[in-house]
Amino acid sequence: xxxxKSNCLFYTVIILLYRLSYxxxxxxxLDGKVIAVTxxxxxxxxxxxxxxxxxxSIYKQQNITIATTVFAxxxxxxxxxxxxxxAEQNYFVGFRVHYYLFTDHPEQVPAVKLGEGRQLTVLTVAxxxxxxxxxxxxxxxxxxxxxxxxxxxxxYVFSLDVDTKFYGRWGAxxxxxxxxxxxxxxxxxxxxxxxxxxxxxxxxxxxxxxGDYYYxxxxxxxxxxxxxxxxxxxxxxxxxxxAKSIEAAWQEESHLxxxxxxxxxxxxxxxxxLWQDFKPxxxxxxxxxxxxxxxxxxxxxxxx
Length: 304
Ligand SMILES: *[C@@H]1O[C@H](CO)[C@@H](O)[C@H](O)[C@H]1NC(C)=O
What we know:
By secondary structure, the chain is α/β, with parallel strands linked by helices. It has helices at residues 2-20, 52-60, 80-90, 131-153, 224-243, 251-262, 297-300, and strands at residues 44-45, 65-72, 96-103, 118-124, 156-160, 164-166, 178-182, 215-223, 267-269, 275-276, 290-292. The protein has an 8-stranded mixed β-sheet. A 3-stranded mixed β-sheet has the order 6-11-10.
């Protein structure tokens, strides 16, 4: 009996060690070449790894609708014009795209000419005095929008940050069951130094020896059902933290990283799909498709 018990314990320890002990996956190899697949066999989407014409035509046959949610609260409405105009030129061109725009200033939404098959719905929400609060409530808004509308109105959904601009093609190569993007600031960083939430009291906690990539919170995508699971889970975890007065280091981004650690994305977008305008170009990133614009935080955020 004791031997059986100690055997069980032994195997449990082995399983725990095994789970914790895999090496961090690389994004760029020692030869400087980009890596196009994760250790769980999900593609990492880089320029040169796909045929854009072929991949678009596969998805066009399926007559899909891509819902795209953006949040433009307070002074963030100033980013809408560039976001929408550049999306119309680069983002799923030729596909049915439905933007769902959450704002507390519907009168400030610019009139942007949309292409055929594309539409924009403005959803008015209450204002907030803290930008942290605004990010915390995004998951809840996304969860509820999926339940009330997107289950009937779309096949895929992307939730994108609005203080951004498209500079290059973003098409059907980005579609899949569950999509995350590698944050441009950390794709060559050792995971010990990722800005994950490290306090065990938070639901977003990730131990120092764990982690695959540091994912950016500016892009979440996938099938409507799978993105609903992300939004619902993160909202629940955010609520548990809030009840304990804990705010994760990077709010929803921290919870998203926790989610993706245990629910691996089926496709990972390279930093081509999320750059930062202030970051110098690097050898690996041949094309910048989507990038966070330089902003004066003091001028756009309602609080420091
Ligand atoms: C494609 O989808 C749209 C909207 O869901 C629908 O109105 C249209 O009839 C569909 N077209 C075809 C060819 O199935």
